[in-house]
């Protein structure tokens, strides 16, 4: 796509990156076929190709409007279009650039500004956990819309105490410990059963995704630097073999630290190193499955004898953002679980971080569509790999929705424990 940047963008890092991305686009439109908002709204400007044209116009000097902002706001950033695109257009990075430029040029109404500020500051605040506890204490009295955002209190169980030679870092996250604490402890227990010790750096807070994708990119980058600084002593000493992410939304962001901080002379090299070390938990599943078959044969035998029927929802941040497909269903299947993917498994469930709050109607339409496909499989439980998807889907169904690692942990805890020699 031929592009002639306006002078105010031509000499900037963001402008040069956007131009390189735009030049890869060949107008083919394949992306529109897999865009959830294009399918729902039937408007070219609510699909990737239309949004690319809007961003191109702004970069070439056109004045953005509230309408421009609305079409960019409606994008889920699911990056399904990137999986479809034959030309390798990095739409996710382009829409980040376009949204920030439009945000700087188009004032939002006061109500929108307040809501977006509350989300980016509240979700990443130390006050989020006590606020969530308070909400859970009065959950039965909350209106349905708010109740859907407050999961029932959960017993996280015990963190393993064994020390192992193999060690990994894990990001606790900003909302997951308060909303679904068992995901982190279940992860640590499963890895412990495989002879891997999970470490947490307490100073590492939010990965930066919330603020970055709400167009406070400076705030998001500051959180990225803080997380790198918290992790760096473990990395520099060689104490850990990987950084393991059990929330795919955080994982895709951390894997892109190297990109986001490439122009920061103080952090570029460290950011690239962090990204290279980062693995989604599902990437460890082949090793986990193999090790459990050796060390916990009783548990694996129990799974194969009476495993529940699971419907798997692969998060967009996993299958499109990280381009990881097949690990979860294949490896859980190898352990004996009965795992099925629903039709349209490539489409977003509508959670998309804060999207379920900011674009509630579209989000709920996508959730209903997703749950209809998942429910048709008549599963005992729905499993996923991201806290946002899990919470969003659970609000629309009585079928249990959990992280897949929690289901695996349940069977390890319940089966007779007879480890092979370590």
Describe what you observe in this structure.
- With 422 residues, this protein is α/β, with parallel strands linked by helices.
- Helix content is 53%, strand content 7%.
- It contains 25 helices and eight strands.
- The protein has helices spanning 7-10, 13-22, 36-41, 48-59, 66-73, 80-84, 91-105, 110-122, 128-137, 144-147, 176-179, 182-193, 209-213, 217-236, 248-254, 257-260, 268-277, 285-295, 297-306, 316-321, 327-335, 355-358, 360-375, 387-394, 404-414; strands at residues 166-170, 196-199, 242-245, 278-280, 309-312, 338-340, 381-384, 401-403.
- A four-stranded parallel β-sheet has the order 2-1-3-4. The protein has a four-stranded parallel β-sheet with strand order 6-5-7-8, with helices on both faces.
- Strand 7, helix 24 and strand 8 form a beta-alpha-beta unit.
- Helix 2 crosses helix 7 (91-105) and helix 19 (297-306) crosses helix 25.
- The chain is globular, with a radius of gyration of 22 Å.
- The termini are far apart.
- The model has no long low-confidence stretch (mean pLDDT 95).
Whole-number mean pLDDT: 95
Count every beta strand, where a strand is a DSSP E run of 2 or more residues.
8
Please give the count of helices.
25
Helix content bin? 40-55%
Distance between the termini: 58 Å
Radius of gyration: 22 Å
Strand content: 5-15%
Uncertain ranges: none
Strand arrangement within the widest β-sheet reads: 2-1-3-4
Q: Looking at the structure, what is the overall shape? A: globular
Biggest beta-sheet profile: 4 strands, parallel
């Amino acid at each position: 796509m031929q592009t002639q940047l306006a002078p105010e963008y031509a000499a900037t890092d963001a402008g040069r990156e956007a131009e390189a991305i735009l030049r890869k686009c060949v107008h083919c439109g394949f992306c529109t076929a897999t865009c959830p908002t294009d399918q729902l709204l039937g408007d070219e400007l609510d699909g990737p190709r239309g949004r690319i044209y809007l961003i191109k116009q702004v970069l070439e000097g056109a004045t953005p409007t509230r309408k421009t902002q609305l079409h960019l706001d409606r994008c889920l950033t699911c990056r399904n279009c990137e999986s479809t695109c034959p030309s390798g257009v990095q739409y996710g990075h382009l829409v980040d650039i376009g949204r920030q430029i439009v945000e700087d040029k188009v004032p939002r109404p006061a109500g929108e500004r307040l809501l977006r500020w509350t989300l980016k500051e509240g979700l990443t605040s130390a006050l989020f956990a006590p606020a969530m506890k308070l909400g859970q204490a009065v959950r039965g009295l909350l209106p349905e819309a708010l109740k859907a955002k407050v999961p029932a209190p959960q017993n996280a169980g015990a963190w393993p105490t064994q020390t192992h030679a193999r060690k990994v870092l894990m990001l606790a996250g900003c909302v997951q410990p308060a909303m679904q604490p068992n995901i982190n402890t279940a992860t640590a227990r499963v890895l412990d059963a495989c002879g891997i010790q999970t470490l947490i750096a307490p100073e590492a807070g939010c990965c930066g995704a919330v603020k970055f994708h709400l167009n406070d990119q400076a705030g998001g980058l500051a959180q990225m630097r803080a997380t790198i600084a918290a992790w760096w002593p473990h990395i520099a000493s060689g104490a850990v073999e990987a950084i393991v992410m059990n929330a795919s939304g955080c994982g895709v962001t951390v894997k892109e630290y190297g990109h986001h901080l490439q122009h920061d002379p103080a952090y570029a090299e460290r950011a690239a190193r962090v990204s290279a070390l980062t693995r989604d938990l599902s990437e460890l599943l082949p090793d986990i499955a193999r090790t459990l078959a050796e060390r916990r044969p009783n548990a694996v035998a129990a799974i194969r004898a009476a495993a529940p029927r699971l419907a798997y929802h692969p998060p967009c941040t996993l299958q499109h953002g990280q381009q990881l497909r097949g690990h979860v269903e294949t490896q859980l299947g190898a352990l004996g679980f009965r795992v099925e993917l629903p039709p349209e498994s490539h489409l977003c469930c509508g959670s998309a971080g804060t999207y379920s709050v900011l674009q509630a109607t579209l989000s709920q339409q996508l959730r209903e569509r997703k749950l209809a496909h998942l429910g048709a499989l008549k599963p005992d439980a729905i499993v996923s790999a991201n806290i946002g998807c899990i919470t969003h889907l659970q609000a629309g169904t009585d079928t249990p929705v959990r992280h897949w690692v929690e289901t695996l942990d349940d069977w390890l805890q319940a089966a007779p424990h007879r480890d092979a020699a370590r």
